[in-house]
Design brief:
Elements lengths: L4 E3 L5 E3 L2 H4 L1 H17 L7 E6 L2 E10 L4 E6 L31 E3 L5 E3 L35 H11 L4 E2 L9 H11 L3 E3 L2 E2 H4 E3 L5 H13 L4 E14 L5 E5 L8 E5 L1 H10 L1 H8 L8 E12 L11 E13 L9 H12 L4 E2 L15 E3 L8 E6 L4 H18 L5 E4 L16
Parallel strand pairs: 7-9, 11-12, 14-16, 19-20
Antiparallel strand pairs: 1-2, 3-4, 4-5, 6-7, 8-17, 9-10, 12-13, 12-15, 13-14, 15-16, 17-18, 18-19
């Protein structure tokens, strides 16, 4: 969606920002158009600038009796049809790991905001609350909704998805830098709530040379008291042992973007490495040899170093309570194997439009595509799958995937590459003629 313009019934232009900057005008204009919108034909209802199959996508003007207020809402089941940058866009949960959550974990608001149920308790001050590492309750139906809480990995994937960073268009070239990505993440956090709090209130991105990010981190820690609980997000440069038997993590931008010592207890470091083996393997390489970035979302306790005359006065000391790592390409696209990285890079080089569905907290028995091409003649996307292993368990899993894709999209209706044979990557499906 271009900008935040809404067209009201009768052609009146309406600014979505008025909800925040001019709430009286927001209420007055929506109230005036409420009855007209309800009785109007679909093509004459309120709408944003998104289109689907050449037609505008309508919006609803709705009234909340409990607050005596008006708001705009997406039309039922049409959220996935909006442009990904549109505030009314809602992802199709069946095309990603979102399908693993029960309905109460991600609650979509009518205004496009979401509330989530996290596996950690968010606190501002006081002693850290223990992280809940107990197994999530499971249903008896494999591959179906079973997760009842969202872990930090799920939150990282949600932020990435809401920021539109799991998608690629040719026009994104040269604009997908780590700093730009973090700026989009910061914006995405303003529309996600957990335990009644905006994630953006607790989220501090850090990046090299980004004074605004650095000032925000230091201001949050300085003003919130002696000990704070917040989220740090940035790109990992190193994860190394320290003399005390723990580990230190360095995010890009230390010294020239922010000033923070980041300690990772040995138990948490071991959990991160065990849970995110691809990220750990990437960090084990010399920085010059890495073909990808590792993103970290870390829930930390933080305090100012206030020792008088200390050379580190003004720095922050933070300890990681829990967190998640994610490996992304140079184009900021997440991937789960070297073969997926090869496909993602090839799609970018070919100038294709596509998305990378994210796993969130789904177990491996949930089937969804590795990639979805968005620029073919198929309106709902063209699924793509990479087969990268030959062990017995994976062979069984592969057969399940092939049966699913054949049944859902028809034999020959989906793209695949068996990377285990040493064969070249097959040609991609033809793109839509421009």
């Amino acid at each position: 969606m271009t900008g935040t313009i809404i067209i009201l019934p009768g052609g009146e232009r309406f600014q979505l920002e008025w909800r925040r900057t001019d709430p009286e005008r927001w209420e007055r204009r929506l109230k005036a158009k409420y009855d007209e919108s309800r009785s109007a034909e679909r093509s004459d209802k309120a709408r944003c600038l998104c289109q689907h199959r050449g037609a505008s996508l309508p919006l609803q003007i709705r009234y909340r009796a409990d607050s005596h207020s008006y708001h705009l809402a997406v039309w039922p089941n049409e959220g996935p049809l909006h442009e990904k940058t549109c505030p009314f866009y809602k992802p199709d949960p069946e095309k990603s790991g979102r399908a693993s959550y029960v309905n109460s974990v991600i609650r979509e608001g009518e205004d496009g905001d979401v509330a989530v149920t996290l596996s950690i308790g968010l606190r501002r001050k006081g002693p850290p609350r223990p992280v809940d590492d107990t197994p999530l309750p499971a249903s008896d139906r494999p591959g179906q909704a079973r997760q009842r809480r969202m872990t930090p990995l799920g939150l990282l994937h949600l932020l990435w998805e809401r920021a539109g960073l799991n998608e690629w268009r040719p026009q994104f070239a040269r604009h997908r830098t780590p700093t730009v990505a973090l700026g989009r993440i910061a914006s995405a956090g303003t529309r996600i709530r957990a335990q009644g709090r905006l994630i953006s209130d607790l989220l501090c991105p850090v990046a090299p040379g980004h004074e605004k990010f650095g000032r925000r981190l230091h201001a949050v820690v300085r003003t919130e008291g002696q000990e704070n609980h917040l989220f740090l997000i940035g790109f990992v440069e190193a994860l190394e042992p320290d003399p005390r038997g723990n580990f230190t993590m360095t995010l890009s931008g230390q010294r020239n973007g922010y000033r923070c010592f980041l300690t990772v207890p040995a138990a948490e470091r071991n959990r991160l490495v065990r849970s995110h083996q691809l990220a750990a393997a990437t960090l084990a390489l010399p920085e010059a040899a890495r073909q990808a970035h590792v993103v970290a979302l870390l829930y930390v306790t933080a305090r100012n170093i206030g020792t008088p005359n200390s050379r580190w006065k003004g720095w922050i000391q933070a300890e990681v309570r829990t967190g998640a790592l994610m490996t992304v390409s140079r184009s900021m696209l997440p991937f789960e194997s070297s073969h997926e990285l090869a496909v993602a890079d090839a799609l970018v080089a070919a100038g294709r439009a596509f998305e990378k569905p994210l796993r969130f907290d789904a177990e491996r028995d949930l089937v969804f595509p590795d990639f979805i091409l968005q620029d073919t003649a198929r309106n709902d996307g063209y699924p793509m799958e990479v087969f990268g292993r030959t062990d017995e368990a994976y062979t069984t899993r592969r057969a399940e995937k092939e049966n699913y894709y054949d049944a859902t999209f028809g034999a020959g209706g989906w793209w695949s590459w068996d990377a285990t044979t040493g064969s070249r990557m097959p040609p991609f499906p033809a793109g839509r003629l421009r």
